[in-house]
Amino acid sequence: MLSILNEQIELLDSQIYKNVAIIPIKTPVNHEFDILTLKKAFELGLAKVEECEHSTVNTLIVLNKSTTPLLLVDGEEIVGGDQNRIVSSTIIIAPESETKCQ
Q1: Which pTM does this prediction carry?
Q2: Could you report the per-residue pLDDT of 72-86, keeping only the tens digit for each?
Q3: Distance CA 51, CA 35 (A)
Q4: Facing residues of 78 across strands?
Q5: So where are the chain's domains?
Q6: What residues have CB less than 8 Å from 79, skipping those under 6 apart?
Q7: Which of 17, 20, 41, 68 is the most buried (most CB within 10 A)?
Q8: HEC sequence for the chain
């Protein structure tokens, strides 16, 4: 269970058909909320990728400078740092925060 914007959300089991995967998001209230993709965040200058202080090949720090949750999807390429990486699991990064991604 994740807490975003003072609400609890739950990522349910992914539904996979051929090369498409859908991950349902469950919230206690039916309403719309924005999620920013990594590509759009880069275009708007709202995401930044940095190497960890003690360089680890599989780990980067992703900063979400927006007021909207940032979505990183399993298999997506993160461009930045000393070399590009591929996201190994789907991650939602809270607004105005940073997280280590593998």
Answers
A1: 0.64
A2: 888 888 776 677 788
A3: 24
A4: 85
A5: 2-101
A6: 42, 49
A7: 41
A8: CEEECCEEEEECCCEEECCEEECCEECCCCCCCCCEEHHHHHHHCCEEEEECCCCCCCCEEEEECCCCCEEECCCCEECCCCCCEECCCCEEECCCEEEEEC
